[in-house]
Specification:
Low-confidence stretches: none
Radius of gyration: 11 Å
Number of strands: 0
Number of helices: 3
Shape: globular
Strand content: under 5%
Structural class: mainly alpha
Length: 80
């Protein structure tokens, strides 16, 4: 799976979690909190939805991702 494929899947998840957020300008450098307004509850829901979408698990104790690219990289790391 490529980073772009993970990015596209992540945007699908974000569309469901943040239906009123315009995602047209989202890129790998978009910050989850400042750029998308994701709070701690939404971050937890995002993690669960990403784990389900990509059939993987994030390890406990990992630092929270800051950007969309961080999420993509974490998914790819777990799928490797």
């Amino acid at each position: 799976m490529t980073r772009q494929e993970v990015f596209d899947g992540l945007k699908e998840v974000l569309t469901v979690l943040r239906p009123h957020t315009d995602l047209t300008d989202v890129n790998f450098d978009t910050e989850l909190v400042r750029g998308l307004g994701i709070d701690s509850l939404t971050m937890m829901l995002l993690s669960l939805a990403v784990e389900e979408k990509f059939k993987m698990r994030f390890p406990d104790g990992e630092p929270m991702p800051v950007t969309v690219g961080d999420v993509c990289d974490n998914v790819l790391k777990q799928l490797a």
